[in-house]
Amino acid sequence: MEKILVGLKRVVDYNVRVQVKSDGSGVETDGVKMSINPFDEIALEEALRIKERGEASEVIVLSIGTAESQQQLRTGLAMGADRAILVETDASTDPLTAARIFQAIIERENVDLVILGKQAIDDDNSQTGQMLAAVWGRPQATFASAVSIDGNTARVTREVDIGLETIEIDLPAVITVDLRLNEPRYVKLPDIMKAKKKPLDQIPFADLGVETAPQIKTMKFEPPEGRQRGIMVEDVAGLVTALKDKGLV
Amino acid sequence: MTKVLVIAEHDGAALNPSTAKCVSCAKQLEGAEIDIAVFAASAAAVAAEAAQISGVGRVLTIEREENDPAVAAILAPQIAALASAYSHVFGPSTAFGKDVMPRVAALLDVNQISDIMSVEGPHVFKRPIYAGNAIVTVEAPAESPLVATVRTASYQAAEGGNSATIESTNIDAEIPTHTRFVEVQTGQSDRPDLQSAAKVVSGGRALGSEENFELIYKLADKLGAAIGSSRAAVDAGYVPPETQVGQTGQIIAPDLYIAIGISGAIQHITGIKDAGTIVAINKDEEAPIFEVSDIGLVGDLFSIVPELTNALD
Ligand SMILES: Cc1cc2nc3c(=O)[nH]c(=O)nc-3n(C[C@H](O)[C@H](O)[C@H](O)COP(=O)(O)OP(=O)(O)OC[C@H]3O[C@@H](n4cnc5c(N)ncnc54)[C@H](O)[C@@H]3O)c2cc1C
């Protein structure tokens, strides 16, 4: 296959304990560390491995967002992607519009395989990959924990609630990845230098001719109802008594 | 007029409890008429179960060979075709629902509301973001069909005792052949199912090996509990992936959850926030798991767990 397209979303780093702003208008992002969505890093790693096995010739990374997302794209290039595309928009992009943007890029680039994270850890929607597959009219293999390519088909093992499901899909297709698919490589300093020379195209959203999908409005943010810290018991006997008191054993 | 179509999750033989939880969510919509759709090769057994769920008006069966086993790309166009008669289409936020529902939403040209925790109005819902560290109230446009997944841990299964009509339906939709089911491997176990179990005993990285997980199994068997785990335990190969609890594993709400040798990372806690009672056993008194536990015991699991198992005779 020729080209693999990978999505890289800029999100609040997974180690940050996200706080809701006191006025309920959003979450605190000022001065907060931003990173590539961890699932997207796994998606990129998989694309790079496919290319390194000689099964694809080019890996393109795509981000949708403000100019700041260039940072994440540069990291992707340092990991080994060949080139990057930033679709520039100030608005945060809903999953269906994101899927339409991917579709527009796929048409421009003649992509054979799209690999995305199974969800972004900010809005936790888990929609974009499936929606892209629908918009594109192509197969989807979500929550992948193993991928093998065989000519014009891919065999994907998926993590489902009862175990592992394997499906076979015709290419082109969309794969969304789960955490256990691989372990992303670390970026080395020389790679960061090299990445600066790799092409990064910026396309204003308005130039793509993509129609924005009907919006789901967020009216309010609030912190979750916390659980109360309970009691500590001294020993097993204390634990058994506490469980009996609650009628649990 | 609020008309809700709930997409049944099943394995061809039995209905998954997630379906009755979706019905509970749908019932929160005022004056809702609720139908369940069963896509299967032969739907009779599953439809009979679905017809018993209280609050359901009709069970629609859509029988064709291609519907067994369920593949998202095959189901989605059929669901989208059926959706035109409904204001809302709900599926569970299980692996099944998360796979198929966004595909349906895109075919209907709408965004999806993922993981409904509560219903605030016909088009207004609450849902978690940032691994449950924030809850948002969202409003979908009233003029388009509303596609959503229901966070099953937020709902009790609707009761039985109903006898809804069962109607067989034909759907004119083009079925793709580009996606083929190969196999499913499932850890054969006589233990209760993690999603629906009343009690769950869960082990983390501290267990140290697959053999040591025997301690967890013994305690679970004593309690009649399902087995859970942390991502670290799964990644280390101590237990199969379907046991993982958390943001990227299963979100569960048992009456009793016992976390053993699990530190309590946010991504893990997300999966158990709705549990009745959380018990933590950890040798580190500073472990974050204790902040969310109802009962905590500091100590070495390798002595505590066998002692506890014996004490429960
Ligand atoms: C995007 C993303 C998604 C994730 N999703 C999930 C998820 O769904 N579920 C999940 O669980 N994790 C998830 N994680 C991983 C999570 O961040 C933690 O790394 C993981 O939960 C840690 O597992 P653990 O508690 O078993 O291991 P550790 O954090 O290593 O904790 C082990 C605990 O055992 C205790 N211990 C050690 N020895 C003993 C002993 N002898 N007796 C008693 N206690 C002992 C230690 O004090 C420690 O608290 C995710 C991470 C990311 C980045």
Description:
The complex is a heterodimer of chains A (249) and B (313). Chain A has 249 residues and is an alpha/beta fold. Chain A has one domain (3-219): 3-Layer(aba) Sandwich (Rossmann fold), CATH 3.40.50. Chain A has helices spanning 38-52, 70-79, 95-109, 128-136, 189-195, 236-245, and strands at 3-7, 10-12, 34-36, 58-65, 83-88, 113-117, 140-150, 153-160, 163-170, 173-177, 200-204, 217-222, 231-233. In chain A, strands 9-8-7-10-6-1-4-5-11 form a nine-stranded mixed β-sheet, sandwiched between helices. A two-stranded antiparallel sheet of chain A has the order 2-3. In chain A, a hairpin with a 2-residue loop joins strand 8 and strand 9. Chain A is globular. In chain A, 48% of the residues are buried. Chain B has two domains: 3-168, Rossmann fold (3-Layer(aba) Sandwich), CATH 3.40.50.620; 199-311, Rossmann fold. Chain B contains eight helices and 16 strands. In chain B, strands 5-9-4-1-2-3-10 form a seven-stranded parallel β-sheet, with helices on both faces. A five-stranded parallel β-sheet of chain B has the order 13-12-14-15-16. In chain B, helix 5 (214-223) packs parallel to helix 8 (301-311). Chain B is globular. Bound molecules: flavin-adenine dinucleotide (FAD). Flavin-adenine dinucleotide sits between chains B (204-206, 230-233, 244-249, 261-263, 265, 267-268, 271, 282-284, 287, 300-302) and A (14, 38, 121, 179).
